[in-house]
Design goal:
Keywords: Membrane, Transmembrane, Transmembrane helix. The chain is mostly helical. The protein has one domain. 76% of the residues lie in helices and 0% in strands.
Length: 176
């Protein structure tokens, strides 16, 4: 039984955009609830939505490890949303993708820490700093592994293409 909405989410790029949209929505609501809802309701809403966002972020980052390059269709959520010109040949570590991830982690961490300082009582702020920092470090480490895997896959693809070109030019196999 093929359902249209299930079939749409089979593509990792589409699934990634949907998860990122959910994370943005949850994070924006956490900040808004923390700043504009007074008392315990605002505090609990902020912490719950921030935890939900962090859980989605780590889970999706780990899920991305297996889908770093795949068959070359997915090159990050920003390239899914905007044409970033990902056709150029990169050498070495995929620093563009890793740099964008670090900038995103830094921005989200800064907003989360600033909002935590405004919302949480003084006793709990150090705990929030450690929690938000831990999520940022885990996400950055996973992002590095994704970028490293993407670079390795690209290097392997280029090597296979070069071997195929050499075989076609020589008319013989390398080992034969």
């Amino acid at each position: 039984m093929k359902l249209a909405h299930v079939t749409l989410l089979e593509d990792f790029g589409t699934r990634s955009v949907a998860v990122h949209a959910l994370m943005v929505l949850a994070f924006a609501n956490a900040v808004l609830a923390g700043l504009f809802l007074a008392g315990q309701v605002g505090l609990v809403s902020f912490v719950a939505l921030l935890n939900f966002t962090a859980g989605l972020w780590v889970a999706h980052s780990i899920h991305s490890l297996g889908n770093a390059v795949g068959d070359g269709e997915y090159a990050g959520v920003l390239n899914e949303l905007f044409d970033g010109g990902t056709d150029e040949s990169d050498r070495g570590l995929n620093t563009g993708r890793f740099g964008r991830l670090l900038a995103l982690v830094a921005a989200v961490t800064a907003v989360a820490l600033l909002t935590s300082a405004q919302v949480l009582p003084g006793d709990i702020v150090p705990i929030a700093i450690v929690a938000v920092g831990s999520i940022a470090v885990v996400t950055a480490i996973i992002g590095f592994l994704v970028a490293l895997g993407a670079s390795y896959d690209e290097s392997q693809r280029q090597t296979i293409e070069r071997i195929d070109r050499n075989e076609a030019a020589d008319g013989s196999e390398i080992d034969g």
